[in-house]
Amino acid sequence: MTGGPRYTVPVDVHLILRRDEAAGAEVLLSRRAGDVYAAGMWHLPSGHLDGPHEDVVDALVREAREETGVAIDTAEVRFALAVHHRGPGGRSRTGVFFEVLTWQGTPDVREPDVCDAMDWFGLDALPEPMVAYCRAGLDTYRTGGAMAVHFQEPGDPIAFDPAFDRRRPVPAAAGTPGRPDARVREFAERAVGRVTGWTDASWAREAGRVWRADGADGGVWFVKVHQNDRFHQREVTAYRSWVPALGGAAPRLVAADAALRAVVTTAVPGRSPRGSVRPPDEERRLFQHIGRLAAAIHRSAPARPNSEPALPVGKWERHLGSQGGRGSGRVAAFGRLLPLHLRRDLGRDEAAVGPRARREGAPGPPRAGRGGLDHQDRLRARPVAIRSRSG
User: Fold this and answer.
1) pTM for this entry
2) 119 to each of 68, 158, 297, 391, how far by Cα in Å?
3) pLDDT for 160 beyond 50
């Protein structure tokens, strides 16, 4: 670090004023005009901070009023992403992009000396020419990213050109709360209404994502994107067939979209026991409850003809106990804790879909967390607020 003046860069604020139409999400854009940078190109309503007395949210509200005439409550401002940008001339800046879904007034041109047009455009149908810096922010927004670096090279065009796309998304840290991309958010909000908060609820895995969606009316849902079409088909099929047999212990399907491989489900009371350590008596009750749910799942499967004899209960218990590796003791304990009549039910159902049936192409027993549809399907359901529950 040298003893010279500290390097500083300007901070911009960008307004993603968004409305949802039947054809999809639209954002408000203005066309720059006059003696300004990038005249004739489309851009988000934006501006600089007026000084150290102004924070980025206040600056956004002020710029929105000055440029578009709309009034925005600071409580309605949501951080969307940040872009570290360097233009073709070599100067850099940091842009903070905010999403706003609720405002007062009708947007129109309020600064005709620097703006000659203003209109709504679909996120998937952005106009040309558009400032490349702005396009980098909107492309990051559409894909659900939280940050991007956009360093242009000398000679690059100011307007967006796919041949000179310098956008470099910066991945979020593992476990950082995030949100799905714009298409998934639109799908979810068409199903349940406006969502005011997204929280990444995914477990550690290579593919497949889950988000908790908090609705404006206080409801809670979960949105899941499957890692492939097969998993999507399995899960939605499960929700439409055997899951209802679990009653209030399982979520209900609200909407499914095969093109996105996405589902929206209701929330259920309680909390996940995953990773928890419980006293022996409490753990025994927990496994007994799991056993009852497992029996309900197996009983809900359609009967399949099979000539194999029923699997003896003792053999079924030995099979569970033989599942070596981590957790084998708990698996064996699970079998021993089930009431006898439930163990017999599970033994008969396991035999009904034994190895021979699977080799011949018969589907196996339903598995929680997998399934799908090849078309969009919606089922309105009353959201259930989440609360903690012991045991």
Assistant:
1) 0.54
2) 11, 21, 53, 55
3) yes
